[in-house]
Write a structure and sequence with these properties.
Elements lengths: L15 E4 L5 E6 L5 H9 L3 H8 L8 H8 L6 E8 L2 E11 L12 E8 L8 H15 L4 E6 L4 H8 L5 E6 L2 E7 L4 H23 L3 E5 L8 H11 L5 E5 L9 E2 L2 E4 L11 E4 L6 H11 L3 E4 L9 H16 L3 E3 L5 E4 L6 E4 L7 E8 L2 H17 L6 E6 L8 H9 L6 E6 L5 H12 L4 E5 L17 H10 L3 E3 L2 H13 L7 E6 L2 H13 L3 E2 L3 E2 L6 H13 L5 E6 L10 H14 L5 E5 L3 H9 L47 E2 L2 H21 L13 H12 L5 E2 L2 H9 L8 E3 L3 H11 L3 E5 L13 E5 L2 H15 L2 H4 L1 E5 L5 E10 L3 E8 L2 H6 L2 E5 L4 H9 L18 H17 L3 E11 L4 E3 L2 E5 L17
Parallel strand pairs: 5-6, 9-10, 9-13, 10-12, 13-14, 14-15, 18-19, 18-20, 20-21, 21-22, 23-24, 23-25, 23-26, 26-27, 27-28
Antiparallel strand pairs: 1-2, 2-3, 3-4, 4-5, 6-8, 7-8, 11-12, 16-17, 16-19, 29-39, 30-33, 31-32, 31-33, 34-35, 34-37, 35-36, 37-38, 37-39
Helix pairs in contact: 6-11, 8-9, 10-14, 11-12, 12-13, 14-19, 15-19, 16-17, 17-18, 22-23, 26-27
């Protein structure tokens, strides 16, 4: 790229790949002097009408002076960006800084004129909206705070681009021209508009992959076997409803078909469009295949070929080049090293994967990075989908392999409003962008359950993503705050998914237990207690219970207002082979249908027939013996029909009776754990409907704090504040820190105590003794000079010289419970507020609770109650409850400080002694630094490679 000789180096960080409204991709980059020919070619392809709208007059061609002006920029006062596909311009945008008189200007002028030109063939794809986001971010970086644009009244499309952006703006009409002025500072509305566009575009890009009208398998072998040929067979045998092509450049000229599938030597030779290409050629031949696909207009690629980032440094570079190459043509990639994709919709029936059988259709969206985990999940759902919950299977499945491009975030965007998916199950080896993931998860979880197994792996090989510095447990807690159902194993993932796919959400934690085994009922009761549920006394129907007895008991339990869910336990009668399984299953199903508002689960022990019978109770479920033999490939005529009508976001908490399929579990612990997750998720849904508010406090001096921070940061890029500075900054937010006076000699300690008034505390503040009262570095309730001098002598005798101990004297605070409040800005997850009790025991157990900042009043209340040791704050064993409202206010003030001033990258208040009335902050530290860049406030971009 050209280096600007004017004032600034070429700003490579402005380059970005974006997803457009129709799901295709484009590259946005600065325009340079090397782009003269591209600019002229681009302009020649723009219609006369679009040129007239841009220049307000007929303007058939650009002059040499125009080309020079539009390609020479200083990247400060004059900036031009281009959107490109295949290296050619499809749209341009530029700004010119102007002064108050409207003439060209330099900084500190903070206004600029902006103008767009979009090729007619690409209008309506959201190109201008994406360019506006990026040119706005560039302008803010260069100190421009406001854009002005003059548009002809007839140019309604461009007026709509500006008006719909969500910025604060003014509109006027003068001399036949509409003048728009708008501030560039992001607003709640502009961010909402940006996120909505992001969701539509990314969902559409995934839809183009999962709902293709035509598929080409590149690398199809001429004989059965091999990866490419297997995938071709799988697509054909699943009954794919679109057009299917086989591609192999080694095919003889006279070979026109492979097993009745049209065959070609190149994608270029195919007549008609190809929406999706599955690439299964050796890694060294993939670039050629991608080029052919791009030139033919293929919309997306699934790369199953290996030999990329998983193979080492050379493979990582090969993978990065693969992504860059595909995006050049506007294509997205699943893979490389992918297991494949599946869509069971009857209108698609796509099995472009290595799975030899089409998964059973259902309402579960499934994502797994690992192919091995994907196989395990599909097989478990297949076994349990037929034997336990009827036709509850998958709607769509993606195994992304190295996850070089399309990721779990993209799939969440797609499943959010996918009418065929009710529940989302995800196995994530890592979360590359926790801030975006939690934002998407929170929105999706408000509409449908999102269940996640989070591995402890690092970011995928070859990714240039900002890594989180938070512990694994903290990230998990933040996911739960976002509504994610966080489980530990793939078994729990399937258990929870099957319950949530076909049962209503429980309205509370009260559980009725009934069955024909007293022992199994007691095991279920104990499991409920262990999971924090509130079980009722188990009802033992005895081993002689008939199906009618189960039916009547379940009806009574479901009609009882004192329970929110029912667990049915069943064991076979001794000496029998369960001949009444179908009858029992029908009895349970009919009772559940009669009272459809509560979830029902079954715990069965070695009751082989009941699970199948529960499935057979649903009219669309496969009957016993009706399916193909094990290992038989499913043909189109054998595919199961869809099971239920499409569900929409905002699904009601009770499921229509005709779709009630009762999940069965082989162990009480598994059933109860799944139920407990459903209870917690249902409570989150209720709480998220009213998340609370971030309160305003009249005594907060935000401007004064900002001035202090600016002055302090002028001394250095990152610093930990001293005691006086810490107290002053916290004081601007109404947080008072109890004064501590250094005491380097016994006489200093006495003078400090006389200033503070007895009784006092003497503390060692050396790093190895700080906040460690258990080590003896603290002396409390020193009532007079004699006690103080004795305590000082004891500390120096035990731990060393005063300069090593760093002793301080502090006035005694009212007795209470010692707690700790922390806030930190993580480069990936964002600002996080943490709370726990102070002391070694809590630290050892990791008993800390976490919330994303800004924290609302409801979240502050729940944060205090989330730790396991919370009872100590509320009168445990007859102690006096402490002032938790004061503690909540402190948490909210710390949250406001960090949210208002992202330069405050770390705050620690320890200990905070919470008394029955009020609290005392006895120690505090604050660290300032330039804040990490916030990806969520910038323009939409795809990950950088």
């Amino acid at each position: 790229m050209q280096t600007s000789p004017d004032r600034h180096e070429y700003p490579a960080h402005w380059e970005a790949d974006v997803v457009l409204r129709d799901g295709g991709t484009a590259r946005i980059r600065p325009i340079t002097v090397d782009d003269a020919e591209r600019l002229v070619s681009f302009y020649e392809q723009v219609s006369d009408e679009s040129k007239y709208y841009r220049f307000f007059a007929p303007y058939p061609r650009l002059s040499a002076k125009d080309v020079h002006r539009f390609t020479h920029h200083d990247f400060v006062d004059r900036v031009g960006l281009a959107a490109t596909i295949g290296g050619e311009f499809i749209a341009t945008v530029r700004y010119d800084r102007i002064g108050a008189d409207g003439m060209p200007a330099s900084s500190p002028a903070d206004e600029a004129e902006v103008a767009f030109l979009v090729q007619d063939a690409h209008q309506g794809r959201g190109v201008a909206s994406a360019l506006l986001e990026h040119i706005g971010a560039v302008a803010r970086e260069r100190g421009i705070r406001r854009f002005a644009a003059e548009v002809l009244p007839a140019n309604t499309k461009m007026i709509k681009v500006f008006m719909d952006a969500g910025y604060t703006q003014k509109r006027s009409f003068e001399d036949g021209v509409v003048r728009l002025e708008f501030d560039l500072e992001p607003t709640d509305r502009s961010l909402a508009v940006q996120y909505a566009r992001e969701q539509r575009a990314e969902a559409r890009s995934v839809q183009r992959l999962l709902v293709p009208g035509s598929v080409a398998v590149v690398g199809t072998g001429r004989t059965p076997g091999g990866v490419g040929r297997s995938i071709l067979d799988n697509i054909r045998d699943a009954g794919f409803t679109g057009r299917l092509y086989a591609v192999n450049k080694a095919l003889p000229e006279d070979v026109k078909e492979l097993d009745s599938v049209p065959a070609y030597r190149s994608v270029r030779d195919i007549d008609g469009p190809v929406d999706l290409a599955v690439v299964a050629v050796p890694a060294e031949h993939v670039p050629e295949a991608v080029t052919e696909c791009g030139e033919h207009g293929v919309q997306g690629i699934v790369v199953v070929s290996a030999g990329y980032a998983e193979s080492g440094p050379d493979g990582r570079e090969r993978q990065r080049e693969l992504v860059r190459h595909a995006r050049t043509y506007g294509m997205r990639i699943i893979g490389p090293n992918a297991f494949g994709i599946v869509n069971t919709s009857p209108g698609v029936r796509l099995n472009a994967s290595l799975a030899p059988e089409m998964p059973r259709p259902g309402r579960i969206g499934l994502f797994a990075q690992s192919g091995a985990i994907g196989i395990a999940l599909l097989s478990r759902l297949h076994r349990r989908g037929g034997g336990v919950t009827g036709v509850t299977g998958v709607s769509t499945f993606v195994s992304s392999g190295n996850r070089a491009d399309v990721s779990g975030n993209d799939l969440i965007q797609y499943w959010y409003d996918d009418p065929d998916t009710d529940v989302v199950l995800m196995y994530l080896e890592s979360i590359g962008n926790p801030r975006k993931f939690t934002r998407l998860a929170r929105r999706t979880a408000a509409a449908k359950p999102l269940v996640v197994v989070q591995g402890a792996g690092s970011a995928p090989q070859g990714h240039a993503v900002r890594a989180t510095q938070l512990p694994h447990a903290t990230v998990s807690a933040l996911l739960r705050q976002a509504g994610v159902i966080r489980v530990d194993t793939i078994t729990e993932l399937v258990d929870a998914g099957l319950l949530l796919a076909r049962q209503p959400l429980p309205t509370g934690p009260r559980v009725a237990i009934l069955g024909n085994s007293e022992s199994l009922g007691l095991l279920t009761y104990d499991a409920c207690l262990s999971e924090g549920l509130r079980p009722l006394r188990p009802l033992d129907l005895t081993t002689g219970a008939s199906a009618e007895d189960f039916h009547a008991a379940l009806l009574r339990a479901l009609g009882d207002d004192s329970c929110d869910a029912v667990v049915v336990t069943a064991i076979p009668a001794i000496g029998e082979v369960s001949p009444g399984d179908a009858e029992l299953a029908e009895a349970l199903r009919s009772a559940a249908e009669a009272v459809p508002g509560k979830p029902v689960l079954v715990v069965h022990v070695e009751l082989g027939g009941l699970a199948e019978a529960l499935s057979a109770a649903a009219s669309t479920a496969p009957q016993a013996g009706s399916g193909p033999p094990a290992g038989t490939r499913l043909r189109p005529s054998q595919m199961l029909p869809p099971t239920t009508p499409a569900a929409q976001p905002g699904r009601a908490e009770s499921v229509p009776s005709e779709s009630r399929l009762i999940p069965a579990y082989p162990a009480a612990e598994r059933a109860v754990r799944a139920l407990a997750e459903a209870v917690k998720y249902a409570q989150w849904r209720r709480d998220s409907a009213d998340p609370g508010k971030v309160p305003e406090y009249e005594d907060i001096d935000e401007k004064g704090a900002a001035q202090l921070i600016d002055g302090m940061l002028a001394r250095g890029q990152g610093l930990t504040l001293g005691t006086e500075e810490t107290c002053e900054l916290l004081g601007r937010y109404g947080i008072a820190v109890r004064r501590a006076v250094p005491a380097f000699t016994p006489d200093d300690a006495v003078r400090a105590a006389e200033t503070l008034d007895y009784p006092v505390a003497l503390k060692a503040t050396a790093p190895h003794l700080r906040h460690r009262a258990d080590l003896g570095g603290v002396r409390l309730d020193l009532a007079d000079e004699e006690q103080l001098r004795r305590a000082y002598a004891e500390l120096t005798e035990l731990f060393g010289k005063p300069e090593e101990l760093r002793p301080v004297v502090q006035g005694m605070a009212p007795r209470g419970v010692d707690t700790v409040v922390r806030a930190v800005i993580d480069p990936a997850a964002g600002a996080v507020l943490s709370f726990g009790l102070a002391g070694a025991a809590s630290q050892l157990l990791g008993d800390m609770a976490h919330r994303l900042i800004p924290v609302t009043d409801r979240e502050a209340t729940s944060l205090i109650r989330s730790i396991r040791t919370a009872p100590l704050l509320f009168g445990w064993r007859g102690s006096t409850p402490v002032d938790t409202p004061a503690l909540e206010e402190l948490l909210l003030r710390v949250s406001r400080l960090v949210d208002d001033h992202p330069e405050v990258v770390a705050v620690t208040l320890e200990p905070v002694v919470v008394a029955p009335r009020g609290l005392s902050v006895l120690g505090a530290s604050v660290r300032l630094a330039p804040p990490p860049a916030r990806d969520d406030l910038g323009p939409r971009t795809l990950p950088v490679y």
